[in-house]
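Hey, can you fold this one?
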Amino acid sequence: MSYDVNVLPFRRRLGFYVDKIFKGAEAGRSPVEQPTKFELVINLKTAKAPRTYYPPSLLMRADEVIE
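Sure. Predicted structure:
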């Protein structure tokens, strides 16, 4: 199970910041962006392992369930 930030939007914004730095902007003056979307990913094979129990409501809330 993983509850983490979706890094894809940050990768898309990276080019914007690199362009600004190459054009002369100071890297230390660039704003810091905070994540706004987190994802819950559950590995179903691991969830069904002995001595492991995930309630069905948690599986339904997951953004992605890996088979």
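The chain has one domain: 2-66. Let me know if you want another pass with a different chain boundary.
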